[in-house]
Amino acid sequence: MKDNVRISSYQAILLIIAFRIVLAFSYQPAINAPPGNQDNWIMIFLSTIYSIILCVPMLILSNKFRDFTLIEYMKLIYGRILGKIIGFFYSMVFLLFTIIFVSILVEILDSTMFPETPTWVTASMMLITCIYISYKGLESIGRGAEIFVPLILVVIAVIIILGINVLDFGVFLPILSDSSFKDINIGAIEIGTKFVDILILAMLAPYLDKRENLNKIFIKSLIYSILIVVSMIIVSQAALGIEQAKHANFPFFTFARLINVFEIVHRIESIYVVAWITSNIGKITGYLFFTTVSLGQTFRKGENKVYIIPVSIIVFISSVLIKDRRSILAAKEPLNKITLFIALTSIFIIPMIALIVYFFRRDRLKDKISAK
Amino acid sequence: MISKDIDKNKERLIKEFNNTSDLVAYEFRTNSNLKIIISYLEGFIDKNTLDRDVLKPVITRLESYNDLKKIIFVSGIKEINTFEEIIEEIVSGSLILFIQGCKECFSIDLRHWEKRSIEEADSEAVVRGPKEGFIEDISTNKMLLRRKIRNPNLVFENYILGEQTETEISVAYIKNIVNEDVLDKVKKRVQDINTDSILESGYIESYIEDSPYNIVSTISNTQKPDIVAGKILEGRVAIFCDGTPHALIIPRLFIENIQVSEDYYSRIYIATFLRMLRFFALFLGILLPGLYVALQTFHQEMIPTVLLITMAGAREGVPLPSVLEALLMTVMLELIKESGVRLPKAVGSAVSIVGALVLGQAAVEGGIVSAPMVIVIAITAIAEFAVPALTEVMILYRLFLIVLGGFMGLYGITCGLVVIIIGAVSLDPFGIPYGYPIAPLDKTGLKDFIIRFPLWSMKKRPGYLVKKNRIRQRNVRKK
Amino acid sequence: MKKKSVLLIFILCLTLIITGCWNSRELNTLGIATVIGIDWEDEKILVTIEVINPRPVKAMLEAKPADLVLYVQGRGDTIFGALRNISLKFDRRIFVSQNKIFIFGEEFVKKGFINHIDVLQRDHESRETAYILVAKEKKATDIMGVHEAVEEILGMYMEDIIENKKFNPKGVDVNLSEYLKYYYDSGRQPILGVVDRKEKNAIKKADTHEGKKEYELVVEGCSIFNKEKLSGYLNGEETRALNFVRNEVKGGEIEFPTPVKNVDHYSTPTPSIKDSSSAINTPNRSKSVLEIIKSKTKSDVEIKNGKFILKTKVKMRGMLGDVSGDIDISNEETIKLIEESCSKQVKEEIENSIKKVQKNYKTDVFGFGTLVHRKYPKEWRRISSDWNNIFSQADVQVEVETNIIRTGLVNTSTNKIKGE
């Protein structure tokens, strides 16, 4: 990637928000997380605290190494060979998430819009779009976010406003009486660890035009996205009832199907689907792009553009293979476990160790930082 | 070097011009018996002035060549002494005067040729605002611009391009406002042009533009001096080309396509409304047929029941699939437009009658196409005319989205739209982001986006374009 | 490299487009369903679908109502199977996204319909917003095919009359999603709308065929459930009371006996409040009508000495729509009397309705359980499984308050001469 690429804080915040809300937009794991009743929104608010705690080591590192991406400073801290392994690990994490997102996308598309279309068609359509955007580079991704993310947020807001007459906020009563403190905390930890998008932020950090704003960007994007996610979850639960929302695979989608205003505005869930596809394109592109960037930086060979086509072919093949065998949403349990494990190691454990190593090798590393 | 023997010079000149018949080499003697030859290209000079102000004094009063400037009542006299210069002067319309026994010759500027008078620009008609348009003559065009901006900071830099055509090009900008990066890039790219001919400013455009393979054009052209003045006052660079009334303006950002000069001359509310309308028309023109196909073949649940029943009724017995129907109709529409444009007006109306009858009525009544499709295509055509700057782009994108919409419904359209928009915002024509002021966001630019703020509130010039001297005005309407 | 990859992508795009459109369905291959009737017949599920028979606009205007729709049927062990089996008989693919109404035959409802309707929620084409009606003591096929409305297509006019609930709360508008919401809620039992076919009083119209019975459809009343079990039906007035308790009355009218006490403010002093109660109690056949403008209900529960008390407080604002009887309403006190009479009427209706449900059906369709859950979450955990029994033994307290805010264009009822 070229060094003169710059993206603004605003663009970075929008990107992270978009990445964060995709999950809530599609299958809303938080609705089924413990405590799994009317207190889930409190649990989600609580999860921000856990997210912040988990992300602290990585944030400290990114602030210390302002000119370096995650991969680059891991290399500096861990040395060449171990650094390369860790860089490769992170690339694989990005790749894995890309594959998971493509699979989920294809699954939702096939079950809501195109039941008869083969998996490879929907998947390749998405990947072609993502490849195109990836070729255009980070700056275009940032600018695209500036156009699409506000539109997506407007669509969410419009859907919520239009659906206001099917909402029954009574379902949230009684507050905090059916769930124990323990349940809420377990759920909050589970949701808190889902903030893998900090990895993207750590990759973005050196390309920000104001690098000192990193913490501000982190906090802002976290809070805004949590607000949006909570409002979406509250709305789905209020419209469908607690139990039916748990039954639904895509609760917000089901909510959007209920909207009917004056017999004119109804059956607008396709607009929801459009916004949702757009946000998914953004997320998949982001992860695909950073897979290639981290591969490029791990092996120090060529620009990231070289890796785009091979990586997307891998993504394509594996997601089609997965999708033609299993429904990925039906297999929520193992998927959740895998992602939880990977998220924990990549967000918390490796950076934590890196932070400790950094404190012991502080002086030598400082020379290297200033050398750049 | 020219020789003292003017007969030799004459021979050489005729040889250089390959015996062309429009080269005049007129030989005569003055009263003091000096032999003189004047040479020029037929039709390039003002013969009245030549006879009255050059020939008459020269013949009657010239005694030695030193007196020449004293007796000729013409302002542009130059002494030159190489044949390269002579040729250059002659092709640019000057008169060359050789005097027997003189090592130099004189170039007298008597340029005058037939040109179109200044008329209303036919492709950019306005209701309010100046009507005058550029003409084919570059010096008139420069004069028109200079009349708008009476300021020494307005600079024209001339270049001669084209091995064969030797066309005069002029880069115009305002010294203390222009974005230096853009100016440097433009100058460099103009100087780098190495071609045999420049016949229209479109040639220059294709040599200097940033992303030649992108569908979106990043250089705009106009026939109107007030538009050029407005643009270069925002830090842009204009290029005039001799022989065409179309001046180029660099760079062209997306937002300029929905801005119209009249927006600034009319009141803000109507200007804002019209901009929204144009924006809407842009979306209709690109999206509508694709969306219609997608809804009709994939998302029937989105159509209100009553409308769906009507549409289903209209589609009964139509043989083609909706995608092909839409493609066919779009192509037919473009065909009618294209065949009508270059025809004489009388025949043109006949074409539109045939088109309307054949396409509109017979096709529907014969059951070849469904009536709603005709309506959709008609709306698209009208929308297309509302945003003339983007017509070409809209046609291509429309076809693209029809195919995608017919293939994958709204999913295809979403992907297509993302590709289109990313393709556009990724452009950086001459270092200025194409999507300015929304991608990247800039608050000063937003005042002149879809909502046009009052002129007095646009205190600063647009951010990414103008780097220095950003204050446009201060302290107005503030008490 | 770049050129090759561009070529690759181009070829991929091309193959995608050439290999065809899997899910594209032209409108003229679809059979647009507007009503789906589901019955239980000979141990199989019988699905009857009203399909629109599309014609060009001109032909549509001239067509007879009966020609605009077709009825197709399919049998199967599941609804999905039955729907698919239709393709063996009918040339177009059934498209259920525009479906407005599900009509369930009574037998189907009684035989555990909740086991069969999963497909209506799972299938992406089917809509959760379609209203569900139970064909009272009939089969769905008895209901379908009756055309007695301006709108020719059954689905469209059924939808309209269900939505007329906002003018007349004697019916309910429950869709699939709402039904399921209450089905999952242990504090509130589901209800569904009811449709009945009734014989019309014979009207001699010029073009009526002699001897042929004329039918009309009525969506008055509702059916109440205990989970998926059909407990019984409520009539129109009881349904209105139910709607009052559930705070779903948006409009409608209340007929109540006109108070008889002749109030003439020219001569007699205004009656005391004591008198008024006796005045209302006097039997009287003349009735007045209040048109509801706004109504708001607040329900509450209370535990007293281990016994539950169900409280409902209705506040209505309305306009006098019709007054008959010997009464002059241009008097503040009279209006009070009328208001009280109206409140009493509604109060009785609600009490009777709750008592009937408590006694006969033992299912809490009013949603008091939800209130218990909110107010006494600890107790609720203990009693929630037994709530319906507790509900049926609970005491009921109803309060109704009426405010007449408009009295129309005349001040004295038509049959009374002023000053007499």
UniProtKB/TrEMBL annotation, chain A:
Q: Mention one GO biological process in which this protein takes part, according to its record.
A: spore germination
Q: Which GO terms describe its cellular component?
A: membrane
Q: Where in the cell is it found?
A: Membrane
* Primary subcellular site in the record, as a coarse category: membrane
Is Transport there in the keyword field?
yes
Gene3D superfamilies given for it? Amino acid/polyamine transporter I
Record keywords, A-Z: Germination, Membrane, Transmembrane, Transmembrane helix, Transport
What is the recorded membrane topology of this protein?
A: Multi-pass membrane protein
Give the UniProt family note.
Answer: Belongs to the amino acid-polyamine-organocation (APC) superfamily. Spore germination protein (SGP) (TC 2.A.3.9) family.
- What protein does this entry describe? GerAB/ArcD/ProY family transporter
Which organism was this protein described from? Anaerosalibacter bizertensis
Recite the lineage of the species: Bacteria, Bacillati, Bacillota, Tissierellia, Tissierellales
